[in-house]
Amino acid sequence: MVSKKSSVIIAAILALCCVLSTVYLSCSKPKKGATCDDYRCQNGGYCSVDTFYKNVFYPHDYNSSPIHCNCDTGGILLPHCNCPSGYEGTYCESAFITKYLREWDVTQTVISSDSAATVGRVTKYSAFLLQSGTPTTFFINNICDSSNYNNIICTIDSTNSRNFVIDTLSAFHMFYQHFKFTQEGIGTISADDSTITATLWTRHLNYNVNWQNDVLKLVMKPHHQ
């Protein structure tokens, strides 16, 4: 026969188990949050639900106050739009390149050359980024400080919108035989949007009428009036 004291102990153990189960279910498992049902991603974006954990502040629907999970291991389920290359924003509503369409101050440096005397030579000029008509491409005008090199098309990388390829090899870019690009250029937009860097490979006739190959590094900063 179970004594009264034993019954009290058993009841206490059962109560403790219930409390621990409640804590486990509420804190070790992700909390229910918004779903993708009413989350309308645009321009080919798609919605997924991610779990955000303790000490991570994140808006419930990107338009409301932040949510903070106080659980040690638990989290809250939140929807998120995964945008295709060229788009950004809460619902993939904005073309990525739009905010870069402006005049840029360029510092162009020869970082490698057939001629040692040319290495380190710096040229400064202005270049212009223009809309091309698609969200994944844009134009650069006045590249290499030459008005003959306008509408040079740049294509944003399919996996990282901050990287792009500069099409300097198409036949319509070859205006003069004494100056050519020898391969496609590459560029990167910094995470803080303050700098665009690019690398170009060129071949030209120097003063001695010899072919000279140069590698150019372009550092571009927004032009301020």
Radius of gyration: 29 Å
Number of strands: 14
User: Low-confidence runs (pLDDT<50, min 5 residues)?
Assistant: 19-31, 54-73
At CATH's second level, what is the architecture of the largest domain?
Beta Barrel
For the record, what CATH class of the largest domain applies? Answer: Mainly Beta
How many domains make up the 3D coordinates? 2
Structural class: mainly beta
* Strand order in the sheet with the most strands: 7-8-9-10-11-12-13-14
| Strand-residue proportion | 35-45%
Give the N-terminus to C-terminus distance in angstroms: 93 Å
Q: What percentage of residues falls in helices of 4 or more residues?
A: 10-25%
Describe the biggest sheet? 8 strands, antiparallel, barrel
By CATH, the topology of the largest domain is Lipocalin
SSE order: HEEEEEEEEEEEEEE
Number of helices: 1
Shape: elongated
Mean pLDDT: 78
Ordered list of secondary-structure elements with their pairings:
Elements (H helix, E strand, L loop, with lengths): L3 H24 L18 E8 L4 E2 L6 E2 L7 E8 L4 E2 L5 E2 L7 E11 L8 E10 L5 E5 L10 E5 L6 E4 L12 E11 L6 E10 L5 E12 L3
Antiparallel strand pairs: 1-4, 2-3, 5-6, 7-8, 7-14, 8-9, 9-10, 10-11, 11-12, 12-13, 13-14
Q: Keywords for this structure?
A:
single chain; 225 residues; mainly beta; Lipocalin; 8-stranded antiparallel barrel; two-stranded antiparallel ribbon; 1 helix; 14 strands; 11% helix; 41% strand; elongated
